[in-house]
TrEMBL record:
Gene symbol of the encoding locus: gcvPB
Regions that span the bilayer: none
Entry similarity comment: Belongs to the GcvP family. C-terminal subunit subfamily.
Protein name: Probable glycine dehydrogenase (decarboxylating) subunit 2
CDD domains hit by this protein: GDC-P
Naturally occurring in which organism (per UniProt): Cytobacillus firmus DS1
């Protein structure tokens, strides 16, 4: 057994062991009871672990070696675009002029940072086919909500207050109906047809005078391009609604197709996905929103503008939905995305799409004989399999995901989209080599064979991880979130 494979001992506390020393206070001690209500004050000292600095350093270093990330292994999470984060992005984000600026500095003293943001907006306008972009939203779902609030403001400004419903496909990301609800809309589901695309007849049925918008990603969550998108746009626009583009899958169409040319009125982008900002673990993210001309008055303020040779924030926006984030977006992620776009250039971004689509189709065809393929057609950046065949043998998709951990892989997205039984959604991205793809495919094929010949080994997985299979219901309902002295 290697050292890194040895089980971690989590209870390291020993009474009297000290891992720090603080200087004596050089300010008068304050009686907190004069500042805070009694109910907020502890009556006893907190029971914190007592650990030496060396022990705690070894503990967290060992934990870090067990953490899985893009830099340590293949991360095929469908719809998440977990692609490599180029290290030049990190270097540029750490330039003193970017890393050390303060959001409250006068605009005249941060012209370089403002120029970068303005230039990034212009690049995103070109990439998406929109007329204006805001960098304020902090993540994708935040961008969804921002876009929907602008759509709502647009309808209200036109006296069209009866538009209370947002249409979402049955394969939509879960954030779509959630964002619509938070923005004050009702959601209506439109069915997929036998090809995995939006059913046009059902769309005609659900769209009407109360439709505010259709939320859609293209290609969709099944990894399939919505071939009838222009007709869909005509259906929605003819009814007076707007089209919202969920940019989660933009990696599949970079420099090949633009949402603005497909008929979309609003688009959000995930800079921490398509444009290589690091993400996971709750952030950081960046979810810029682009809009067509008739929605520009409702952009969050302030709006970053160029006035002659100067860059400045425009607060005089009487129809704006207001500020949606303190200051102006997650600047560090914006720097990384800008660096990526400038490094890749138009031809590089086109190659991203070509290689992402090639990788996904290669993996799909290699895995097709061993798993059910719900939609046997050319996919884009991701594809879905079904574990129905394995389920008949007593092996669930969850078991397959757990077994992949024994091979050192982060599992793909499972049980999503909801309209595919025992769904397995795989997105390889463009940055993975053929050797990596083949090794993952070989592991999946081995698991499929195990399901037939030795299902117990899959059902009881994982076998090599520090902790075995958890009670996921208890972990969700009663998580242990704080240290408890033993």
């Amino acid at each position: 057994m290697h050292k890194e494979d040895q089980p971690l001992i989590f209870e390291l506390s020993t009474e009297g062991r000290i891992g720090y020393s603080l200087p004596e206070m050089d300010i008068p001690e304050i009686d907190l009871s004069e500042l805070l209500p009694k109910g907020y004050l502890r009556e006893e000292e907190p029971e914190l672990p007592e650990v030496s600095e060396l022990d705690i350093m070894r503990h967290y270093t060992a934990l870090s070696k067990r953490n899985h990330g893009v830099d340590s292994g293949f991360y095929p999470l469908g719809s998440c675009t977990m692609k490599y984060n180029p290290k030049i992005n990190e270097n540029v984000a750490r330039f003193n002029g970017f890393a050390h600026v303060h959001p409250l500095q006068d605009e005249s003293s941060v012209q370089g940072a403002l120029e970068l943001m303005y230039d990034l907006q212009e690049h995103l306008i070109e990439i998406t086919g929109m007329d204006e972009v805001t960098l304020q939203p902090a993540a994708g779902a935040h961008g969804e909500w921002t876009g929907l609030m602008m759509i709502r403001a647009y309808h209200e400004a036109n006296g069209d207050t009866k538009r209370t419903k947002v249409v979402v496909p049955d394969s939509a990301h879960g954030t779509n109906p959630a964002s619509a609800t938070v923005a004050g809309f009702e959601t209506v589901t439109v069915k997929s047809d036998e090809n995995g695309l939006v059913d046009l007849e059902d769309l005609r049925r659900v769209v009407g005078e109360d439709t505010a918008a259709l939320m859609l990603t293209n290609p969709n969550t099944l990894g399939l391009f919505e071939e009838n998108i222009l007709e869909m746009a005509e259906i929605v626009h003819s009814a007076g609604g707007k089209l919202y583009y969920d940019g989660a899958n933009l990696n599949a169409v970079l420099s090949k197709a633009r949402p603005g040319d497909m008929g979309f009125d609003v688009v959000h982008l995930n800079l921490h996905k398509t444009f290589t900002g690091p993400h996971g673990g709750g952030g950081p993210g960046s979810g810029p929103v682009g809009v067509k001309a008739d929605l520009i008055p409702y952009l969050p303020k302030p709006v970053l503008v160029k006035n002659g040779d100067q860059y400045e924030f425009d607060y005089d926006r009487p129809h704006s939905i207001g500020r949606v984030k303190p200051y102006y977006g997650n600047f560090g992620i914006n720097v990384r995305a800008y660096t990526y776009i400038r490094t890749m250039g138009p031809d590089g971004l086109k190659a991203v799409t070509e290689n992402a689509v090639l990788n996904a189709n290669y993996m799909m065809r290699r895995l097709e004989p061993f798993f059910d393929l719900p939609f046997d057609r050319h996919c884009k950046h991701e594809f879905v399999l079904s574990g129905k065949r394995q389920k008949k043998l007593g092996v669930r998709t969850l078991d397959i995901a757990k077994r992949l951990l024994d091979f050192g892989y982060h599992p793909p997205t499972i049980y999503f989209p909801l309209n595919v039984e025992e769904c397995i959604m795989i997105e390889p991205t463009e940055t993975e080599s053929k050797e990596t793809l083949d090794a993952f495919v070989d592991a999946m094929i081995q698991i499929a064979k195990e399901a037939e010949e030795n299902p117990e080994i899959v059902q009881e997985a994982p076998h090599t991880t520090v902790i075995g299979r958890l009670d996921e219901t208890m972990a969700a309902r009663k998580p242990v979130l704080r240290y408890q002295k033993q």
